[in-house]
């Protein structure tokens, strides 16, 4: 069979979606198989799993075991249904999220077919999206972002093509996206703004269509408004709690912060996790003339009106998430990465001879990015580094249980939740925990003032610090990240032990991250249940 026909089946016989979805899901399931039993990590453990767990146990859409952030409830409802059917297990959760990720990749396929109409472009765009490290890692993590991304991409399927607009199903998908993550509403409202601009340039018939479409898209915000109204009636707060609102919105209106955040967002969309490989090759491809088909016509490309909207969506999302969100998490841009890759793969197909090998090179760069950390600071959830972090935490907790099963433990989040919430999969019984914010010098000084409250410390790296190199941040850039984005440097465990007057008894390191156990031989104040601090007793930890 010729190489071309292998990747370009006849367009008059497109594969139905019900045949493509099982293939995508099986591929995702097989590639994530070793991750299915991994306990919950970071924001999973901090909010999304507790919120879904509360709904599963009590039927309350507003979390009761953690502070409510007013995030919409669709992910909690979805996960609770799976737990009801199959049991409350990490494997069940991750399989349920993989189904959502597969649905999102199916939307990428469908979107590529509708705007370009070339099966090989759809195939490679879907494949690159699936193995792009950020999408791959998020495909089994129970964050709301993968739910919102899948629904948003399906909404785009029905409104982005130059013809055959279907605003009603698009509005339903965008409403589902907003009920998954409130910030997803930026996508339909960007499209509404583009329609209203086009109203002044179109014919009378075209203006009517654009206004009707905009009306339907505007309806996608109604379920989100209903959720916020109900949340306000129940809690007295519209957007979660005051601290959450301050951190994610009110404290962000600083022009210098906006510029710094926007620079990060541009890099997230164009360079992070080896995205620079297809982006740079796309720029190079634009220097070539379009290739011709056998009939002398130019190869297909993304129609200009659609391309303009793609770039508009990328720009607005970069700007929007430069203002909202206290942390510059890359998963906030999750539905944008497939759009970048669709533009890139279409450019390869249209302009580069033997373009499949260019895509294969991009795929190799993405696979490398899954396993090899970049030479700069990043969130472990951006690739498979998060699995190493989870397994390090498991090792530290198991060692702590073996050595000091009754200790009062000094630690920081998320380890504090991992030790006190058995439903997260790390412990069977909750521990007595004294929590600090991180392991910087300032926080260790705070901990030293409360030395009578703990008999052991489980310390770990709360940030990934890359080895020194050419990508080390300059003093000005690092100062901005410390000021606006929570950048800090944890002390080494040996230094922490010395400052607290303890002894390092165990340490493990992996992929630039570490965990350590420190013991103390001294008197501590024993905690009496939930009623406060009681009599002094000696519980010094020993080997």
Give your account of this protein's structure:
With 543 residues, the protein is an alpha/beta fold. It folds into 2 domains: 3-382, no CATH class; 385-538, Rossmann fold (3-Layer(aba) Sandwich). Helix content is 56%, strand content 8%. It has 23 helices and 7 strands. The chain has helices spanning 3-7, 17-31, 43-58, 74-86, 90-115, 119-131, 133-138, 144-159, 167-180, 186-199, 204-218, 222-235, 242-248, 255-270, 276-285, 304-323, 337-351, 355-371, 385-403, 415-420, 441-448, 475-484, 493-500, and strands spanning 408-412, 432-436, 456-460, 503-510, 513-519, 523-527, 533-538. The strands form 2 sheets. The protein has a 5-stranded mixed sheet, sandwiched between helices. The radius of gyration is 25 Å and the shape is globular.
């Amino acid at each position: 069979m010729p190489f071309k026909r292998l990747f370009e089946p006849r367009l008059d016989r497109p594969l139905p979606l019900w045949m493509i979805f099982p293939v995508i899901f099986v591929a995702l399931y097989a590639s994530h198989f070793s991750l299915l039993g991994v306990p919950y990590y970071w924001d999973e453990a901090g909010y999304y799993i507790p919120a879904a767990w509360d709904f599963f146990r009590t039927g309350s859409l507003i979390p009761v075991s953690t502070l409510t952030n007013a995030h919409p409830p669709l992910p909690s409802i979805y996960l609770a249904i799976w737990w009801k059917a199959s049991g409350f297990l990490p494997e069940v959760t991750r399989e349920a999220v993989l189904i959502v990720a597969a649905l999102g990749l199916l939307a990428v396929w469908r979107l590529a077919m509708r705007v370009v109409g070339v099966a090989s472009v759809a195939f490679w765009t879907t494949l690159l999206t699936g193995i792009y490290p950020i999408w791959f890692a998020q495909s089994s993590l129970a964050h709301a972002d993968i739910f919102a991304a899948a629904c948003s991409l399906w909404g785009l399927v029905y409104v982005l093509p130059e013809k055959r607009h279907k605003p009603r199903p698009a509005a339903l998908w965008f409403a589902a996206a907003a009920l998954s993550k409130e910030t997803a509403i930026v996508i339909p409202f960007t499209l509404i703004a583009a329609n209203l601009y086009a109203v002044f340039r179109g014919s009378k018939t075209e203006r009517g269509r654009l206004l009707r479409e905009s009306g339907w898209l505007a309806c996608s915000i109604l379920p989100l408004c209903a959720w916020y109204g109900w949340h306000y009636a129940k809690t007295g707060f519209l957007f979660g709690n005051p601290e959450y609102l301050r951190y994610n919105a009110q404290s962000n209106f600083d022009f210098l912060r906006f510029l710094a955040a926007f620079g990060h967002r541009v890099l997230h969309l164009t360079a992070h996790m080896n995205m620079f490989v297809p982006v740079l090759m796309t720029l190079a491809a634009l220097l070539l003339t379009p290739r011709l088909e056998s009939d002398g016509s130019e190869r297909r490309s993304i129609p200009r009106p659609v391309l303009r909207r793609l770039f508009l969506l990328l720009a607005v999302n970069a700007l929007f998430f430069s203002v909202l969100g206290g942390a510059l998490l890359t998963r906030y841009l999750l539905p944008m990465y497939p759009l970048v890759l669709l533009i890139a793969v279409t450019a390869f197909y249209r302009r580069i001879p033997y373009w499949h090998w260019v895509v294969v090179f991009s795929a190799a760069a993405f696979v490398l990015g899954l396993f090899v950390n970049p030479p700069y600071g990043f969130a472990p959830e951006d690739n498979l580094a998060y699995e190493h972090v989870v397994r390090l935490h498991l090792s530290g907790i198991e060692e702590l249980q073996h050595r000091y099963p009754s200790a009062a433990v000094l630690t920081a989040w998320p380890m504090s939740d991992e030790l006190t919430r058995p439903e997260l999969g790390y412990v069977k019984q909750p521990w007595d925990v004294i929590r600090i914010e991180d392991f910087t010098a300032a926080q260790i000084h705070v901990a030293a003032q409360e030395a009578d409250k703990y008999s052991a410390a489980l310390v770990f790296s709360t940030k990934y610090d890359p080895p020194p190199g050419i990508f080390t941040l300059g003093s000005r850039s690092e100062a901005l990240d410390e000021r606006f984005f929570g950048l800090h440097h944890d002390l080494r465990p040996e230094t922490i032990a010395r400052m607290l007057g303890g002894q390092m008894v165990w340490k493990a390191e992996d992929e630039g991250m570490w965990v350590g156990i420190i013991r103390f031989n001294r008197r501590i104040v024993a905690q009496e249940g939930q009623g406060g601090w009681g009599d002094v007793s000696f519980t010094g930890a020993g080997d």
